[in-house]
Amino acid sequence: RVNIRPPLMSPVITGLSIVTVDFDSVTSKIYWADTKEKKIWSAYQNGTGKQAVFSSGLMVTESIAVDWVGRNLYWTDSVMENIEVSTLDGRYRKVLMSRNITNPRGLVLDPRNHTNLMFWSDWGQNPRIEQASMDGTMRKVIVSTKIYWPNGLALDYTTQRVYFADIERGTMDGASRVTVVSSLSHPWGLTIYQNYLYYTDLDYEIWYKFLFSSQIWASSNAGLRHPVFSTSDSAGTTNACSSNNGGCPHLCLPKPDNKKTCACTTGFHPSPDGSSCQEYESFAVVSTRSYIRGFHFKPVFILYTSYVIHDKVDAHIKSGYVYWTENSTYSTYKGIFKARTDGGHYTRVLPSGVGVRGIQGLAVDWIANNLYFTNAHKTETYLEVMAINTTFRMILIKSSEDQPRDVAVSPKLRYLFWTDAGQTPKIERALLDGTNRTVLASESLASPRGLTVDYSNNFLYWTDDVLDMISRMAIDGTERQIIRYGSRYPSPMGLAILGNYILWCSSNLAWVHKNRFSVIRDNLDELMDVTIFDAHVQPTSANLVGFNPCHEDNGRCQQLCFAIPDKQGPKCACAHGTLLGNGVSCGYEPDEFLVFSTGYTLNSQRLDPTDHSLPYPTVTLGNGVMALSLFTFIISFFSFVTLFNFKSSKCCLDLDNPEGLAFDWINKRLYFTDNFKRNVQSIGVDGGNRSIIAPANWPKGIVVDPCYGYLYWTDWGSPAKIERATLGGSFRTVIISTGLTSPNGLETDYAIERSTLTGENREVIMQGLSYPFGITVYKQDIFWTDWTERGVFRASKNDGSGFTVLAQNLEYLPKDIHVHAESKQEICSSFCQQFNGGCSHVCVSGKSRLFDAQKGTKSHLKLCNRQQEKDILQGLTNVVALEFDHYEKRLYWLDVGAGKIERMRFDGSDRETLVSNDIGGAEGLACFCLPVFSCSHSFASTFPHPSFLHSCPLLPRWLYWTDWGDAAYIGRAGMDGTNISAIITTKLEWPNALTIDYTNNKIFFADSHLNFLDFADMDGQNRHRAIAGSLPHVFAVSLFEDWVYWTDWNTHTVEKAHKYTGEERTVMGNNTHRPYDIHVYHPYRQPRSENPCSSHDLTCSHLCLIAPGGQRATCECPDHFIGVAVGFKIQCVADCSSTQFRCGDNEKSVCVPIWWKCDGQSDCGDGSDEPQTCPPRYCSAGLFQCQDGNCTYPGFLCDGHQNCPDGSDEDATCKPGEFTCANGRCVPSMYVCDAQDDCGDGSDEPYEVCSECYFAQSIPPPPLPSASNYCLSGSVSTHPPSLFLTLLSPCRLYFRSYY
């Protein structure tokens, strides 16, 4: 919407491609058309009340116009090549004009009384502007010269002028023309308001405002096309239709001179007196190359128009639908469609699987609700059936020699008939399920077509357009006779029977005939077929259809129902699946069949080419590269998981570009090639335990032999080859490397070959193939897909004989292929079958040994020595770091998936959680006696990306870590967090791994981006390189004696080498997943020494942190705790505020609101908040009880106002660890003498007391506070281990101590 003054633009409605809009000033509604959605919409001008007026029967609506007086809506459709009209609510609709309408675009109305004209532009081969009355009569061309691309039109109701682009204006009769604006780029929409002309330009995506005095304003707006303004254009308010719809039952269309025409919606005609509209009881429906049209002898109505070729047509009269075929060269517009007789409810019935030569025959079984059709592929023709309003579709007959064309059905006689246009033209009959084929006629036929059944006398009629003949015969082939031969109207095409009349159409002379001589309609272009829409043609009474068993409830059949002659019961069939024992239901039983993927679908097919039922329904899975990857991935997984649950078609989504796939049915794992990652991978069927098996150049096809433990894959790299390895990637060998260019699916270019499993005895099985892609072997046959032929084929696996086409002319390129058969997956024993071979994740053949933390979907810990390896803990989530305590025989680990730091003894006992929250993105772990240090991303302000930690328990007591942030470095700090420094800052990118050589006082570190291992002194000096440029992605490193050990993410290995030279490098183990942290367990890796934390002078209840140099230590408490000196022990207790009560008196103490004390309920859990000294409770729970027994709200405590009569709510009740200010406020004791006025009255900063503190800490003293009362005594000592600052209060001694 655009405000004119000021020019303000705001969106009202959004759509995909809105090209035209108009408004109704009476209801304040706007109407618009969206060409992408193929719909016409309406809504109020504020955007509310949006609803679809028409959602079918539209193609490209380029202009709409509202008759605000007669309450009608007009629009043009450039694809349907017509102008239509409907009521504003869409209830009634009619094609107004279709003759000589080629490319209509602009449309405007003048519905005012005595005018009632419509104008439209047409930019077809003869560009012009036309005028007609609003009922479609009195049509004439008003502008046809010097006009090339007329788009928008506008009416100036005041001056009675028509404006059109290239912007000119003229009188409404076109007599005079004046150029208003010239040399425009691409004008589209026009409108007039007062003295201004507004128009849009598509090239510049801009709208213009033009004053008739030649002044122009412009405003940019991307995508603007058709401007419409809520103006005074609606000046006229009455015409012949403005009152009570002009007395018309459906549509009232005004004409000049205050006249009108009553019209009926499509499929109806006016009653003799014109007072009502009556539905046509009987009419003919014909198809042409451009439209579907209905005829009732004199009136004509159009059902549906399009720009593709309409061929065969039939009807389902009971439901009111007309069915037709479209055979475009584009698959998007090819198939079977349906719509109601008014053009509404347009639906594509058969959207896929249509052959290159299209649908050539169509017949409706209106009793069983089955649709029969012939489907012509490149070299084969199918006769198929489809249950109406379902997806149950089945091939009845498939032939490469015969060419079934026109088809007819008799539900009463229970037969199916069709013509054959093959080498031997004929007419055949079969039962409705396609069985018992019988040739009825094969002589004196050249091109039989137009087959139809006379349901009244049980005769079969057909036409022959080569012999110019119409013939008939009985349904058993007898009583054959010629009805019409030759004439002035040759080449009959379609044929229909109505009572005693024969209707046929001719494509050459384009005539439709009734009986012998009467012409119903001439001058029709390229008629294709005809059918009758009459209830008598399709009777539904049980006695008239031979008591057809499929008449009621589909004969109780789950999918398809067929009526068989001389049988009372129905014959049920399955379009996909197998008919179960009850004879009506379809199930999916594990039998033998083919399954193959295409670019968009997953398909199945019987091994017997004569069995046309599908084992499973075709599944559409998506499109594009990702979908193709998913199809390839599912193809083997299908036979294991989705066999009995077809809807479960997803396994793993985070794949890059998988090409080939193989299923290990013994160990329930999937192996696939990924040419983006350039490797062969393995993954569980649930998407877990994904691992890299082997790197490759350009891996494609893959196959697995789980019983012998081998994996084979093709590689398109240079040179192309076929390789073999164990299921774990070991013993990798190239078995074929010559004579290959693009081996795919274990087949070679334009041929299929075979060899032994070692690559020997190579021989060619099939040659001269077009483009074979996927291949599989079953019993004595090979099956393959071919991209050029778009088909599936079969031949003998020994010599290529017995070549058979199983499927051809598929809509999409066929990809991978497999045979689902129980015998294809040999049952064999495997060490991995029982308890997964003792492995927590992946069990494969091989002898890998490692000691590390490993990550899959679930992590586990492994412990090994020189002789053996064993799992010591399974079921973890994502363990990224390990550490051990040799002296307590404990193992520590950091599980970021579970958000925990845990420990247990080496024998698996005493497992406990040390930290269960706030570990964030912790990655490193180091242990020194009792303290456990962890480094987390939550400290990002200091350490952007900390990774590995290592502590030095010997003097001088340092903590080391790596940081791979923007400026990577290796850092060092005291074990109490002081004296932080970066000791190595150069030649680092991703310093991941770090360890310490305690014997030689060296640090060893690796960079996973620069691929080296270096060592240096403990202060970062004297840096040297041990291994250069050959470490793909080191994650962790450990050291013992002369050897350094590391884990590598890229190679999935654990390796060792000499710690100084890198020599004697050895792979100690191959893994199927990424190994994480690694440690060598030995007493030398944790040497013991004296430290201040073991002194008897001080005992810390929680943390004892050693300062640099190892001579001092500090007691620290966890967050939200404070330290209390109890003798020589520093006890950490909960840090409770003045309005909280501390429960208990131990390290697990918690704080609760103070009014919970003595409230009659035990909130602490240990009863400490409800001692026996509590006075009797009078107040309700949740209230504070004054000392005199009165009650008040907890929020009134210590608020400076006395709420209790005895003032007990304002008593100074500061808790231990808090200082009572002179004004009664409580502040933490550590705030005293910190040079900050925390009390607000200065009583926490008494100068005469705090001056020593200021001097000792070099703190500038604050301004002297005013005199106030306080209770504080303090002393300062600089001699450890005495207290640095002691604060006394009436309750306890609180402190912050340093040693």
From TrEMBL:
Lineage, opening ranks: Eukaryota, Metazoa, Chordata, Craniata, Vertebrata
Gene3D superfamilies (alphabetical): Low-density Lipoprotein Receptor, TolB, C-terminal domain
Compartment list: Membrane, Coated pit; Membrane
Keyword annotations of the record: Coated pit, Disulfide bond, EGF-like domain, Endocytosis, Glycoprotein, Membrane, Receptor, Repeat, Signal
LDL-receptor class B repeat locations: 28-70, 71-113, 116-159, 414-457, 458-501, 709-752, 889-931, 957-1000
Protein name: EGF-like domain-containing protein
SS bond partners: C1179-C1191, C1186-C1204, C1214-C1226, C1221-C1239
CDD domains according to UniProt: LDLa (cd00112)
Protein encoded by which gene: FAP
GO MF term set: Wnt receptor activity; Wnt-protein binding
